[in-house]
């Protein structure tokens, strides 16, 4: 089996630690480097420490050196960090898996531009189950295209900084595309005060933040006399991390281009 050497960005973060654990477990993946910001708590410590394994790979604050040591960067940080790492990966000709959410249009355009030079997997959710739900939503939206109001409801931990989640937005995009609507113009983000009656063409989003909720997403199709709910609940971050390892393996030896988890999982 061919091997891919990965560098984990944001190594001290919730996903960074999970990604290191997954990289150490996954066949065909070698943990080549782990890096974070210079004020991060684990700089200089063994990347395997959290997983109770000595790896000899020390967490560094030298992003360029970490990226140079790998074939592929796996990045779950913040949009500004990801875009800085992407510029380094592009300059060094390295592949990249991007799980970070919350990009604006310019950030997404920068990712598409970099993918003209290096291969990139960019997806708001790497879990296999969520990607299966995206396909289920296409079927549901097709069948329930008349007379059903669409609402996307998501819940996450108190530390999450972007809303709605990237996954909720992608769910909205999938349903909107199937219904021939443009999410840019039909989305309603929360409601307050005298809103008037609901307009049939809208897709509503509701966001809950609290405690340690890993990530729950529901798409509700509400008709007169019946409701259909399609729900995914995460009990652990490991499915995101294992999905990212599949994405890194998918990129091994691949040409430049922009891919997502539907490509990685062969769901297109
Ligand atoms: N696609 C998917 O499947 C999933 C995506 N995500 C997304 O991944 C991202 C990270 O989530 P999570 O791990 O919970 O977040 P954390 O805050 O726990 O971790 C983020 C890490 O990135 C570092 N970081 C923050 N800002 C920068 C920056 N500007 N430059 C470089 N490094 C930076 C943080 O360092 P410091 O602590 O010093 O700020 C930290 O180490 C979020 O966008 C989230 O939505 C999460 C789960 C699954
Ligand atoms: O921040 C998180 O935790 C998560 N973020 C992603 C998102 O915004 O969709 C994926 C998952 O829901 C966890």
From TrEMBL:
Compartment(s) of residence: Cytoplasm
GO cellular component, one term: cytosol
Pathway(s): Amino-acid biosynthesis; L-lysine biosynthesis via DAP pathway; (S)-tetrahydrodipicolinate from L-aspartate: step 4/4
Keywords, sorted A to Z: Amino-acid biosynthesis, Cytoplasm, Diaminopimelate biosynthesis, Lysine biosynthesis, NAD, NADP, Oxidoreductase
Binding-site residues, (S)-2,3,4,5-tetrahydrodipicolinate: 157, 166-167
Gene3D superfamilies xrefs: Dihydrodipicolinate Reductase, domain 2, NAD(P)-binding Rossmann-like Domain
Molecular function (Gene Ontology), one example: NAD binding
Binding positions for NAD(+) per the UniProt entry: 10-15, 36, 99-101, 123-126
All residue ranges annotated as the Dihydrodipicolinate reductase C-terminal domain in the record: 129-265
Superkingdom, taxonomy of origin: Bacteria
Record has Transport as a keyword: no
Enzyme Commission no: 1.17.1.8
Residues that hold NADP(+) according to the record: 37
GO biological process, one term: diaminopimelate biosynthetic process
Dihydrodipicolinate reductase N-terminal domain boundaries: 4-126
Major subcellular site: cytoplasm
Active-site residues from the entry: 156, 160
Subunit structure: Homotetramer.
PANTHER family the UniProt entry points to: 4-HYDROXY-TETRAHYDRODIPICOLINATE REDUCTASE 1, CHLOROPLASTIC-RELATED, DIHYDRODIPICOLINATE REDUCTASE
Stated family: Belongs to the DapB family.
The protein's name: 4-hydroxy-tetrahydrodipicolinate reductase
Recorded name of the encoding gene: dapB
